[in-house]
């Protein structure tokens, strides 16, 4: 055993570069796998994960304080079937005077709670501290969502129900148990009229069980005391479609990552053993038994592999958290960011799977070497020759290509197995690049359309007296013409919302009406056309699906005492399924008291948005201008995650090429020596080695690009269906001939980058020795 | 013989010009000294055999002349070119133009036919494939192995391989042919064939520098023997060739 260990150590020492390459490849591969699986994990069922992490409330119950006796509510927490409970907490609905992160001015639900932890609904206090003293409030907000500088929500002063409060913390609750929290003593100042209790039950799988649990609660308190309940299943249904849109493409990356990593690691490790055949022969001649030889080789590759695997897992874990935060930043729903975290299974897969893969990849050729006689093993060390390879060499030799190039092109055929594995890695690498490119193009096009293609730059809201804001001094039509008369304005459109109902349906919907230009809607229409006059509506894909409506259908809008027939003339790219877009007169027909709520202002190019905003405020202090938000969270997320994974996968594939060149050069050092002895220049050696991989790169491009295009064509519609987006053809067919040509070249670039360093090393190799001996 | 490098000076009866000049060449590998100050001149048309015990520095000396390795000190001048002043590319171009090398273990490319192995030497200099193959064919013809031109090294006998290697070395009409134990891996019959070949080459004017253990090879092919011991020239003798 000692002899085995020593021989393995000596072998490692003599193969520093190879050992380093194995460690590096395993490291980057493990990192890729950890990040890819981590992304996948975070995007799959994020609600469930976040819910489990926070011990979310399966039922959030609101009781009428006046209808219950003290102690009665506390008794419900000890009812049979209740697994855990928090509360009772006093609860008030009060008016907020100004926007705080995601909360608009208006009524907010405030709960008096002593601390964010507890047996149920462990609120994630991600910024500041909990509201414990008088005058302090914590607002709910998705993690990371706050402004910097003077507009930061944290530290700002607000009034809630007329009481001045300072925002001391920002927190998120997956159970969405409140808009804001204050201390139990502070809540009395807000005149609470209801009481909140948060429950987890022994049986809460499915709506039926939740209904039974709620019924038991209702029975335990006086009639009418339980005023509202919220099931976690409803919350989950409401949010689930957002992240699931990311799952299909993260799946593709995850699978690509696993495949490329496995291929490269297998290739690098088996290559190390195959290139050691001569050495194996020598070891056998020295008297090592076949089993000892296998042990030496397993040790030789396992040591760097295990080191790489451990480091890669650790680095992957380190990188994952900020990466995921970055990637999922801004995606709707706090739960997504709350679901992020290291998942044990990903690390277990990496830590067990990678060494297993390494041992398997080393074992197969080791066992072959085990069976070889010492003499055969020694002669197997030089590159083998095959019938087809020879024919190809003969034909290459007769071409007009420079001889260094034609020699290089023939090299891959001498080691078909190794070349095939390298090629496969390059193919997948190119497919990844292609897929990521297509995805980015689609998401960018989608983001641009969502933003209305620059159809307006400024939104102007009106102050509302009922929320304690200054109301505008002008009337609705006056505001529209006022905004249009200010310098820089080109077009002003008034918009508003009106609730309505579809004849025959209990559920309500909302009309979003436009007065002026509807370019904003027009840019979003992907099927049919925008509305041109009264009686026409445009609807998002989610609406059409949910209500079973198709383009061209005639519907009847209803409000109390009025009805209005409309035709669906267009489908938008995406949008809230409960909103349809109409002309102003259509909305007016069902809601005659309609006035403008928001004005969209298109500015002449070059106009200073800030200056225009100041002019608006000066003209009427009741108007609240803001620049249109231009980030598109979904697109940013998709592009950011695909870029990172593409870079990682590209690095792994390039390392695979690197390794192949190192092995080829080592096995062929006699040939290299001879070639130099007959006058091959260092540059010609470099060209030859790079050409050998460049050919693989070109083949990889030719095979990888169609694969990536195919993956894109398959995944984008799935993503769209999951996310309620109807990608129109121009957003799916994003391939331009120029881009395709560049992508085809990406394989060559990848292979060349990977091959360059070891090729130059081969060119500088001193070969005087190998020529005379061996 | 197509080799037109038959030395014109020799033909004219003038003193043949110096092809190789080593001046106080030393080569150290760490502590060990492989060459400890070797000075040597080889004139055009000569056939010089370097002999000596294993490890005395013969191969190292040959590497210096071929520009495959650089001396630790001293000067190596071949065909008027000072090798110490050349960079790697310069050395490669020098080898291409001036040197042909033959090794004990042939060093043929396994995946090229005999013909393509020989043609390779010319193709590296940019000679078109057709032309290079034509010349390779001529050389194989002259060396008596034309019928084996499409065979691969794996199926050639040792003697045939070595003749292919010699053909490759002659491809670019080198001023100097270097051979390191060219018969070392061959049986006596094949060895003799190669010896005859080298002798023929020298007789039509090819300058030859041989490294060998084998006194028979030396006496048969060389007209001068340099004895090397511990990295130094221990003696020189001129020979009347046996063959
Ligand atoms: N690259 C090298 N690194 C270290 N030592 C070397 C190297 N090349 C040669 N030597 C040493 O230099 C000395 C001369 O070696 P060389 O190969 O020239 O001997 P040789 O006369 O050709 O021997 P042989 O007849 O066995 O081929 C030897 O001691 C050898 O160990
Ligand atoms: Mg030697």
From TrEMBL, chain A:
Q: Does the keyword Cell membrane apply?
A: yes
Q: Where in the cell is it found?
A: Cell membrane
Keywords recorded for this protein, A-Z: Cell membrane, Membrane, Transmembrane, Transmembrane helix
Instruction: Pinpoint the ABC3 transporter permease C-terminal domain residues.
Output: 251-373, 644-766
Pfam families hit by this protein: FtsX, MacB_PCD
InterPro entries per record: ABC3_permease_C, MacB_PCD, Macrolide_Exporter_MacB
In its keyword annotation, does this UniProt entry include Transmembrane? yes
From the record, give the transmembrane residue ranges.
20-40, 246-274, 294-315, 344-364, 420-440, 644-665, 686-714, 734-757
Entry membrane topology = Multi-pass membrane protein
Highest taxon of source: Bacteria
Recall the GO molecular function terms of this protein's record: transmembrane transporter activity
A GO term from the CC aspect:
plasma membrane
What positions does the domain MacB-like periplasmic core occupy? 19-190, 419-618
- Family in the record: Belongs to the ABC-4 integral membrane protein family.
PANTHER family per the UniProt record, alphabetical = ABC TRANSPORTER PERMEASE YTRF, MEMBRANE COMPONENT OF TRANSPORTER-RELATED
What is the name listed in the Swiss-Prot or TrEMBL entry for this protein?
ABC transporter permease
Q: Which organism is it from?
A: Streptacidiphilus pinicola
From TrEMBL, chain B:
Q: Name one Pfam family in it.
A: ABC_tran
List the InterPro entries.
Answer: AAA+_ATPase, ABC_transporter-like_ATP-bd, ABC_transporter-like_CS, ABC_transpr_LolD-like, MacB-like_ATP-bd, P-loop_NTPase
Residue ranges occupied by any ABC transporter domain in the UniProt entry: 20-242
Swiss-Prot/TrEMBL keywords: ATP-binding, Nucleotide-binding, Transport
Q: Please name the Gene3D superfamilies in this protein's record.
A: P-loop containing nucleotide triphosphate hydrolases (3.40.50.300)
* Keyword presence, Cell cycle: no
Q: Say yes or no: keyword ATP-binding present.
A: yes
GO molecular function annotation: ATP binding; ATP hydrolysis activity; transmembrane transporter activity
- CDD domains according to UniProt: ABC_MJ0796_LolCDE_FtsE
**What's an example GO cellular component term for this entry?**
membrane protein complex
Question: PANTHER family of this UniProt entry?
Answer: IMPORT ATP-BINDING PROTEIN, TRANSPORTER, PUTATIVE-RELATED
**Protein name per the record:** ABC transporter ATP-binding protein
**Native species:** Streptacidiphilus pinicola
């Amino acid at each position: 055993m000692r002899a085995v260990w020593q021989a393995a150590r000596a072998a490692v020492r003599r193969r520093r570069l190879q050992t380093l390459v194995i460690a590096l490849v395993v490291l980057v591969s493990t990192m890729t796998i950890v990040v890819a699986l981590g992304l996948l994990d975070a995007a799959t069922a994020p609600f469930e994960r976040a819910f489990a992490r926070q011990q979310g409330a399966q039922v959030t119950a609101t009781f009428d304080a006046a209808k219950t006796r003290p102690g009665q509510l506390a008794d419900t927490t000890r009812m049979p079937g209740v697994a855990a409970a928090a509360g009772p907490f006093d609860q008030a609905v009060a008016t907020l005077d100004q926007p705080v992160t995601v909360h608009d001015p208006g009524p907010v639900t405030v709960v008096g709670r002593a601390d964010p932890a507890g047996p149920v609904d462990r609120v994630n206090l991600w910024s500041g501290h909990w509201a414990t003293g008088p005058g302090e409030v914590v607002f709910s907000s998705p993690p990371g969502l706050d402004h910097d500088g003077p507009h930061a929500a944290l530290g700002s002063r607000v009034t809630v129900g007329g009481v001045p409060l300072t925002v001391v913390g920002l927190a998120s609750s997956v159970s969405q148990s409140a808009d804001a929290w204050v201390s139990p003593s502070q809540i009395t100042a807000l005149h609470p009229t209801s009481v909140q209790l948060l429950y987890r039950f022994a049986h809460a799988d499915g709506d039926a069980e939740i209904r039974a649990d709620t019924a038991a609660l209702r029975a335990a308190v006086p009639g009418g005391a339980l005023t509202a309940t919220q099931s976690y299943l409803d919350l989950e249904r409401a949010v689930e479609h957002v992240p699931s849109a990311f799952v299909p493409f993260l799946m593709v990356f995850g699978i690509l990552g696993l495949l490329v990593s496995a291929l490269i690691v297998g290739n690098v490790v088996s290559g190390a053993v195959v290139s050691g055949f001569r050495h194996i022969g020598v070891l056998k001649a020295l008297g090592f038994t076949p089993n000892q030889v296998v042990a030496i080789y397993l040790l030789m590759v396992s040591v760097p592999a295990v080191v790489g695997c451990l480091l890669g897992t650790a680095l992957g874990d380190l990188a994952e958290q900020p990466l995921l935060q970055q990637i999922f930043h801004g995606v709707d729903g706090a739960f997504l960011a709350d679901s992020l975290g290291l998942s044990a299974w990903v690390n277990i897969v990496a830590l067990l799977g990678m060494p297993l893969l390494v041992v398997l990849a080393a074992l197969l050729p080791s066992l072959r070497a085990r069976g070889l006689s010492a003499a055969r093993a020694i002669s197997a060390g030089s590159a083998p020759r095959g019938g087809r390879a020879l024919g190809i060499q003969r034909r290459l030799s007769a071409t007009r290509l420079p001889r260094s190039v034609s020699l290089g092109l023939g090299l891959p055929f001498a080691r078909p197995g190794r070349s095939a594995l390298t090629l496969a890695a390059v193919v997948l690498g190119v497919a990844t690049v292609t897929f990521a490119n297509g995805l980015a193009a689609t998401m960018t096009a989608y983001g641009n359309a969502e933003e209305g293609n620059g159809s307006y730059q400024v939104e102007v809201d009106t102050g509302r007296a009922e929320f304690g804001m200054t109301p505008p001094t002008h009337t609705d039509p006056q505001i529209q013409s006022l905004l249009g008369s200010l310098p820089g304005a080109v077009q002003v459109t008034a918009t508003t919302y009106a609730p309505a109902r579809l004849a025959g349906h209990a559920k309500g919907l909302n009309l979003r009406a436009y007065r002026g230009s509807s370019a904003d809607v027009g840019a979003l229409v992907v099927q049919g056309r925008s509305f041109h006059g009264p009686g026409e509506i445009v609807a998002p894909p989610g609406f059409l699906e949910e209500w079973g409506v198709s383009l061209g259908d005639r519907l009847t809008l209803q409000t109390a005492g009025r009805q209005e027939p409309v035709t669906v003339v267009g489908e938008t790219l995406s949008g809230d399924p409960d909103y349809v877009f109409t002309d102003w007169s259509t909305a007016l027909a069902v809601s005659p008291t309609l006035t403008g709520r928001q004005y969209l202002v298109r500015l002449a190019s070059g106009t200073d948005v800030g200056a225009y905003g100041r002019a608006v405020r000066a003209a009427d202090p009741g108007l609240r201008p803001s620049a249109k938000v231009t980030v598109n969270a979904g697109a940013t997320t998709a592009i950011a995650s695909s870029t990172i994974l593409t870079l990682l996968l590209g690095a792994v594939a390039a390392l695979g090429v690197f390794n192949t060149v190192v092995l080829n050069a080592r096995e062929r050092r006699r040939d290299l020596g001879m070639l130099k002895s007959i006058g091959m220049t260092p540059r010609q050696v470099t060209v030859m080695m790079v050409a050998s991989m460049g050919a693989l790169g070109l083949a990889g491009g030719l095979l990888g690009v169609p694969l990536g295009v195919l993956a894109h064509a398959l995944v984008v519609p799935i993503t769209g269906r999951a996310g309620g987006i109807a990608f129109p053809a121009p957003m799916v067919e994003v391939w331009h001939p120029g881009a395709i040509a560049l992508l085809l070249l990406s394989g060559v670039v990848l292979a060349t980058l990977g091959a360059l360093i070891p090729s130059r090393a081969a060119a500088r190799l001193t070969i005087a020795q190998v020529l005379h001996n061996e | 013989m197509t080799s037109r490098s038959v030395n014109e000076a020799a033909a004219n009866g003038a003193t043949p010009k110096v092809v190789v000049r080593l001046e106080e060449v030393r080569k150290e590998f760490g502590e060990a000294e492989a060459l400890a100050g070797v000075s040597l001149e080889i004139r055009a048309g000569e056939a010089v055999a370097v002999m000596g015990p294993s490890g005395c520095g013969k191969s190292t000396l040959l590497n210096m002349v071929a520009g495959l390795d650089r001396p630790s000190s001293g000067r190596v001048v071949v065909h008027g070119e000072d090798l110490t002043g050349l960079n790697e590319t310069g050395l490669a171009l020098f080898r291409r133009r001036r040197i042909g090398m033959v090794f004990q273990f042939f060093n043929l490319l396994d995946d090229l036919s005999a013909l393509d192995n020989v043609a390779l030497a010319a193709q590296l200099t940019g000679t078109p494939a057709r032309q290079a193959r034509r010349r390779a064919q001529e050389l194989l013809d002259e060396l008596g192995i034309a019928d084996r031109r499409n065979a691969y090294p794996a199926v050639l006998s040792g003697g045939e391989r070595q003749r292919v290697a010699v053909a490759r070395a002659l491809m670019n009409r080198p001023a100097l042919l270097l051979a390191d134990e060219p018969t070392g891996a061959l049986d006596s019959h094949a060895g003799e064939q190669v010896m005859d070949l080298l002798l023929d080459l020298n007789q039509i004017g090819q300058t030859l520098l041989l490294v060998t253990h084998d006194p028979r090879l030396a006496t048969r092919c060389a007209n001068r023997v340099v004895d090397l011991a511990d990295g130094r020239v221990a003696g020189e003798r001129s020979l009347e060739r046996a063959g």
